[in-house]
Design goal:
By secondary structure, the protein is an alpha/beta fold. The protein is 54% helix and 16% strand. It has 20 helices and 17 strands. The strands form 4 sheets. Strands 2-1-5-4-3 form a 5-stranded antiparallel β-sheet. α3 runs antiparallel to α4, α4 packs antiparallel against α5 and α16 packs parallel to α17. The N and C termini lie far apart (156 Å).
Length: 673
Amino acid sequence: MQTLVVTFSALFGALVLLNRGQFRAASITYLAGIWLSATHAMALNGGIRSPAQVFYVTLPISAAWLLGYEAALWVSGVCVSCALLFALLEVASVYLPPKAPGTAFGAFSSFGVACLIGATPVAQILRDLRFALTKSHRAEHESRLITERLSIEIDEHRRTERALRESEERFRSAADSAPVMILAHDANQNATFFNKVWLDFRGRSLEHELGAGWTQGVHPSDISRCLTNLGTAYAERREYHLQYRLQRSDGEYRLVLCHGVPRFELDQTFDGYIASCIDITDLKRSQEEALARQKLESLGVLAGGIAHDFNNLLGSIRAEAELLAEELHEDCASRNKVSIINTVADRASEVVRQLMIYAGHESAMLESVDLAAIVREMLPLVKVSTSKKATFRVDLPDRVPMIRANATQIRQVVLNLITNASEALRETQGSVSVVLNVVHPDGDHASEWILPHHLRLVVSDTGTGMSEEVQARIFDPFYSTKGAGRGLGLASVQGIVRSHGGKINVESAPGRGSSFEILFPCLLGAELRSGDAPESSPASEQSGAETILLVDDEEILRRAVATMLRARGYSVLEAGEGSAAVELFRSHLTQVDVVVLDLTLPGLSGREVFAELRKMAPAVKVIVTSAYGRGRVLAEIGGEPALPYLRKPYQIKELLYVIRQTCANEFDRFAAS
């Protein structure tokens, strides 16, 4: 019994070790158990009494050493079977009767053979069991490795998702903080993202803008062009620049510039576009205004450049008109026409002077002006160009206070207001009213002004009138309700009125006409009234016998002036350019009394001619003529504030007056004017 316990204990221990994968330890345990069992069995039988018993004990150990553990298991099974067989034979030999030894021996021999035969399946079963346990352990190990690898991949996927969410949050935060509108489209031209700036600009939610919802805000006139250009960019996979009008949350359409670039995945798969948009309405308007200002500045430069030539032509017209007037009798009807020619030439010269002021060549001169006289003077000229269906109602007092103003600019104001009033009638019958009166301190406007008296000019019409929206913008530069207008008329009127210390008010309503009221401050103290002004023209014409060198490059003007001077007793030498003037003066150095010198000359300039004359005769008397203002002339000529100066175009009586004053050395008062 003890032998069986030891054997089965060893077998059970070996099975446990095999289940844990410890094959070497299981084999050693099993072999050791068999060896102990065999040794114990032999000890019970009285020890080792034959060489066979030693063989049974040492054979498993030798098999394990030489053949391996599997062979040792098989050998051990055979040894155990043989040992048990011989042990049973020995026991049987004791208890069985001697007469039947063969029978017992045969039975036990059969049992031993059966055990010997069964040892092989037992060894195979143990070997299969060890293989199954080994395979199960290996599968378990592989499953554990797969589980660990899957856990690592899941953790990596979670980290990737978290990083992607963080990246998307950072992008949205950066996009919402950007000072521009940002949007994104997928590969099918559907909008997939809009930042906060876009949504605030549109005043709509993200759900309403996604897909094709954003196109609802594009101006109907721009939507076709916008989508066509966008489709072309998609087809070519290139960046695009679009300009279109987009409706803001307040309903106003604003011009936006949209710049989009294509997006690609890591595998270069096209993924749509991302774009930024900025509102360029104010920038576009500023550029247009800057361009208009540049054009006006260019016009000013051009005006300043042609002023001299134009004034020469006006001077020639006036000179020829004066010659014609001298040839006509006093009672000739044509003398009135000649007078009209001179008047028109005067107005044209004032226009040229205004252009030069605009070009910055000189500043406007303020003087005492009779506003009533200017309005009377402008009305006939305006009526010629206005609608024949307009009826004029004029109320101008005979005597009104004078105002301090620039006459040319005031004429521009009157011309603009009356012309606008006439155009407001369009093709319908209507009236234009022009009223001039004095506003006293106790009047309606007394609280708005510091000065005690103002002259009020009201120009009204019965035309179409203006809405409040139009009235709010009529004084804006470049704003016009006329197809051919430039929007500078009323803007310049407002500027002129304000520069004269005045104010302009407008009253209008659709279908009720318009009324423009202008208030000018009157001169204070001993103000002059119309009809009281002193004679501002030069003294009476005088003849003389002096020799005059007339230097001017305008041949018609020079010949007309020379003719009139000769008619009054003067000897005249003529020169059309600078070098000829110097040579002529050198050859008649002792004869020339006065030089009438135009500053703008071909060849030697007027300044160079003046310097040469002073070198030859330091005391020579020179009268400078120019289309430019006195300040510019003195700066160009090099000083001498007492130098006689006559502005073109001039009348012959003005030239005669200056000549007489110069010859008499009495030109100081004139020079200071």
